[in-house]
Write a structure and sequence with these properties.
10 helices, globular, five-stranded antiparallel beta sheet
Length: 241
């Protein structure tokens, strides 16, 4: 009866919130996700994407080969699970608790090159960017993912001159287009177990796609590991402009 269902529900909740067995015993997750922190944070759900600590550390629990083993599901994760993320990030990057991020976009400070005897055929530079208010790839909801794609499609339609090109959604992609993207080495694929366990391949392939300009020197992957992965590439040894 009702009492039996209530008891089963309590037992299920107890199991869900039990301190997990972390298979990656030498990972940073194993070091920084203690039972004390787990008991404090396990029941919390983030506001933006409904993310949890269990989802964040899923790869460290599932696999035994993780070094870091944690993913943020949204911006909230860093704040709500700061007891875990802060010391873990500090150790991973070798920074202090009061460290501040700085940017220096002066390319003239880049010196040196790869081995001049190495056969370099092309060079690419890429950055990942996320849009405020949307979940990150491990936690983003289906509606948010489609929202990111919609925003990018509207923005890319306004690209002009050397940046102008076309957006190719993975959903319903024509076979000839798919093959050309494969031949150009532009297409990203599903099937990575790490990404699957981390939650990044949910609702595949909806809300994902690839943009490239006419010259195929400027690409954007939409909703792969990053919301936006922006790539500049040249078939030369070094970027001169």
């Amino acid at each position: 009866g009702v009492n039996k269902l209530y008891e089963e529900d309590l037992e299920l909740q107890k199991k869900i919130f039990e301190f997990p067995t972390i298979q990656s015993t030498h990972s940073l997750v194993a070091k920084h996700v203690t039972k004390e922190k787990w008991d404090k944070l396990a029941r919390h759900i983030t506001a933006t994407a409904g993310f949890t600590l269990a989802k964040a550390i899923a790869c460290a629990v599932e696999f035994d080969n993780q070094h870091c083993g944690i993913y943020a599901g949204d911006w909230d994760s860093y704040k709500d699970f700061a007891d875990v993320f802060d010391p873990l990030i500090q150790e991973y990057h070798g920074i202090s608790a009061d460290a501040k991020h700085t940017s220096d976009m002066d390319f003239s400070k880049i010196t040196g090159n790869v081995n001049p005897k190495a056969p370099v055929h092309s060079t690419r530079i890429r950055v990942g960017r996320s849009i405020d208010g949307f979940g990150l790839s491990p936690g983003i909801t289906k509606e948010q993912r489609l929202g990111v794609e919609k925003l990018f499609k509207a923005a890319s339609a306004k690209f002009t001159e050397e940046l102008s090109g076309n957006y190719y959604p993975l959903t319903g992609m024509d076979e000839a287009v798919r093959q050309q993207l494969v031949d150009d080495h532009f297409l990203f694929m599903s099937g990575d177990r790490n990404l699957q366990v981390a939650g990044m391949e949910r609702d595949w392939p909806e809300g994902r796609g690839i943009f490239h300009n006419t010259d195929k020197t400027f690409l954007v992957w939409v909703n792969e590991e990053d919301q936006l992965r922006i790539i500049s590439m040249e078939r030369v040894e070094m970027f001169l402009e």
